[in-house]
Specification:
The chain is mostly helical. The chain has one domain (about 1-270). The protein has ten helices and two strands. Strands 1-2 form a two-stranded antiparallel sheet. Strand 1 and strand 2 form a beta hairpin. Helix 4 packs parallel to helix 8 (about 185-210), helix 5 runs antiparallel to helix 10 (about 245-270) and helix 7 packs antiparallel against helix 8.
Amino acid sequence: MTELLLVLMGLVAGTYGTIIGAGGGFIIVPILLFMFPDRPAASLAAASLFAVMFNGISATYAYGRMKRIDFKTAAVFILATVPGSIMGAFVVSYLSRSVFEGIFGGILTSISIYLFLAKRDYTKATGKSGPNARTIADSQGRTYTYSVNYWLGGSIAFVVGFLSSMLGIGGGLMMVPMMALLLQIPLPVTVGTSQTILLGTAAVGTLTHFSKGNMWGEWSVAPLLAIGTVLGAQIGARLSRRISTRLVARLLSLALAGVGIRLLWQAFTG
């Protein structure tokens, strides 16, 4: 039953994560913390990143076929996330469970408030032309024109890489709102590109965790999660064409708030 539960957990997390470009680690990590209260935070973060990496591979393939990935921007941001991802994987080994849960709970709660209160219509593509102009035409004939501030985006990617590797969440949940709001990249392109960035970030973080030995106790967990996230990525990419991302974001915010508040309570009460 535990094996089936892990696959189903990966499936749900991969589906939700792919719809909003987040990878699903933000769902996987809290559940792993509840399922395995005696395991080190670093090991659970490593298992989650392993699953998120495979979700990124599957989602990149799916969104690539839909032609909704800005590969140039993704490559620049992946390079910026590499040093942050390596640092995050080292830092998490020095965090206690309570500190880890407190940080993660605070981040989840903050993101949930943002998702719930945001008034932007996520289903509409908005962008602008200018320096570093980009034009993407997807498989459905839609054209997206926008410009990218690579210096600002690279700085954001570095911080996201650090936090995602430290927390085992892949970083998409933080990267998507930053790309859409601060960088003004149209959301359909943001979601697909975020999955490719997430793939690079998760791969670097996973390799770093592996080199530090954080993966050795998680081989009974990580592959099962990965199977679910691979399947979920294909489902999520298809659903993204048919449902309102804004509605999904608001419903998801409620779940994130519940998990985040519970983690904060656990962190402060021990």
